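Our preliminary data section would be incomplete without showing what the modeling component actually yields. Below, a chain of 137 amino acids is followed by its predicted structure, encoded as tokens that our downstream tools consume directly.
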Amino acid sequence: SKYQGTAGDKAENGAKIFSAIFLDHPDYMKHFPSMKDMTPEAAAESAAIKAHGAVFMAKMDEVIAALDDEAKCKAIVMGMAGTHKARGLTGPQFHNAFKSIRTLHAAEIESKGFSPNMTLAEKFHGILAGWLAEGVA
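Predicted structure:
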């Protein structure tokens, strides 16, 4: 693929993403058996969130690598949806989670002195969340 995947420590970066989601939506933690009895702050420091974060980031690398092939990209995302449907996640939860991710990314961009233009990220996240919502419906 001509697209570069995620950079940096996948476990740490994935943990940051899920920490942001759980701080914004602590009720989502009930869908994660290894973290359901933790506070968002405790989960942020847990091995469980780092493990799940690494899996998520690896899956995002697969999605990014498939960006030139919409059917393949959607199949990867629908596979993710299938594993989440059994846990009771809903379409609106995916849309909310990706909003938390965009907020986190915008703050990181601003902290480096840049003005974040999240239009592309919003579109990309909207497509992913839409497919995930379709897959759990």
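The radius of gyration is 15 Å. The mean pLDDT is 91. Preliminary results of this kind motivate Aim 1 of the renewal.
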